[in-house]
Amino acid sequence: VPRLSQRLACFLSKLTFEQRKKDAEAQVEAINKAVQCLRGSKTLPLLLALVLQVGNALNAGTPRGAAAGFTSEALGKLAETKSTVSDARPAQTSLLHYVARVAPAESSKQLRLELRDLEEAATLSSAGVAEELDGLCKELDALGSELSSPEYGGKGDGFVAALGSWRGAAAKKVEALRARVEGMLSGLQQLHAYWGEAYVASEAEALLSRVHSFAASFGKACRDNEREDHMRKKRAEAKAAAAKRAQAKGPSRPSQAGAAKPAARAQPAARSAMGNIQMSLKRGEFEDMKKLQSELQTKIQSRRTYTAGAHGGR
Description:
Order of helices and strands: HHHHHHHHHHH
Structural class: mainly alpha
Shape: elongated
Distance between the termini: 128 Å
Helix content: over 70%
Largest sheet: none
């Protein structure tokens, strides 16, 4: 078979063309939807204005204070900026958590609904879509050159007949895809102009990724605040319940066992003296035994005198 490898490459291009075109169209559609939802969101501009106010308050009195705006890269620094630890605030809190706390209620839910089309586009590459389009164009051009080769057209060779008409239809589909890709890139440029940021073709979708990360982090910060408020409420309720139980018990009173403790403390000394007497008796040390016995009687008599005086003074 003449030019077998070239024939196989052309047939492979035909077999994979439709799927590759559909994938590129899906990516273009996802990016276009993301651009539209960013420009149509009502909650996002309010949150960005709140971030600007908080930033100007922190930078008041510095050259960076009273700023008219900020770049999208600053959104990623909100979670990194944290408070200092003190006795009054033993736990750190980030600037993003503060913004989430002072933001209007239901902001997280509304932002998630308004930017639901942003998640898929945040992982796509507009440059990758453009490269796929160029790849399809080059393969069709290569197929056109191959079809014009004089080596085809022999008896029974249906290569040109099989791929000639298909190439014409495929070329029209590629031109339609090119128009859609150009529209996508134009929309990204307009979005950057809307945000007041410079457009870089190689990083055209970076803005989508930054805003998506901010929206996801903002939602998490709102949930963290709700969890913290819930735990604080539980601790306050537990503390109030403990105080109520303590009040119901009333003031504690000294027990009789506690009053008898002085006499109980004297017992170990008496037992120790008796032990010494017994040991002296076993060893035959009668003189020492008499001496210890006399000391013990003196201590017992002194203790009785002290106890009688204490009871008499009451």
